[in-house]
Amino acid sequence: MASGFAAWVGASAPPVSLLRYSPFRRTIQTAELLGELLCPSSTEVDPSLAPGAYPDAFSEQDYAGHEHVVMVSHQPFLSQAIALWTDDVTLAALAPGGYSTLGVTCLERGGAALLRHCPDPRDYISEART
């Protein structure tokens, strides 16, 4: 899944300038894998991405100076943040390994446009095989 995401990002987005991730083991492992594939300009552990995070606690100032940010965090925060920032509560929740990409204007309700939503990596693998 990570290599498919990296290929999609490489073909359609500017280079990753910041990779932020929760300080928990599983997100560290995911961030290390993504870091190898995406070669971000900088990486940082962000305790505010740990379980219990709330979307309204984030602001675009947290990401100032970064054009392309990748966040690695936990559920239900990620799905809640995507629903809030895109103002679309009908989106499927992310399964482990799932991802969404957003074009963000501001981190408020409706402040982002959904670019791609791959909630379940098994769906992506099935699409790739057909």
Number of H- or I-type helical stretches: 4
Q: How many DSSP-defined strands?
A: 5
CATH architecture term: 3-Layer(aba) Sandwich
Straight-line N-to-C gap: 16 Å
Q: Label the structural class.
A: alpha/beta
Helix content: 25-40%
| Side-by-side strand order of the widest sheet | 2-1-3
Please report the first level of CATH classification, the CATH class.
Alpha Beta
Stretches where pLDDT falls below 50 for ≥5 residues?
A: none
Sheet having the most strands: 3 strands, parallel
- Average pLDDT rating: 88
Outline the fold blueprint:
Blueprint: H1 2-12, E1 18-21, H2 25-38, E2 42-45, E3 69-72, H3 77-86, E4 99-104, E5 112-118, H4 121-129
Parallel strand pairs: 1-2, 1-3
Antiparallel strand pairs: 4-5
Helix pairs in contact: 1-2
Could you characterize what this model shows?
- By secondary structure, this protein is an alpha/beta fold.
- It has a single domain, classed as Rossmann fold, CATH 3.40.50.1240.
- The chain has four helices and five strands.
- Strand 4 and strand 5 (112-118) form a beta hairpin.
- The longest helix is centred in the first third of the chain and has 14 residues, at 25-38.
- The chain is globular, with a radius of gyration of 14 Å.
- The two termini are 16 Å apart.
- The mean pLDDT is 88.
Record keyword descriptors for this entry.
130 residues, alpha/beta, Rossmann fold, three-stranded parallel sheet, two-stranded antiparallel sheet, 4 helices, 34% helix
Write a brief caption for the model.
The protein has a single domain (2-129), classed as Phosphoglycerate mutase-like (Rossmann fold), CATH 3.40.50.1240. It is 34% helix and 19% strand. It contains 4 helices and 5 strands, in the order αβαββαββα.
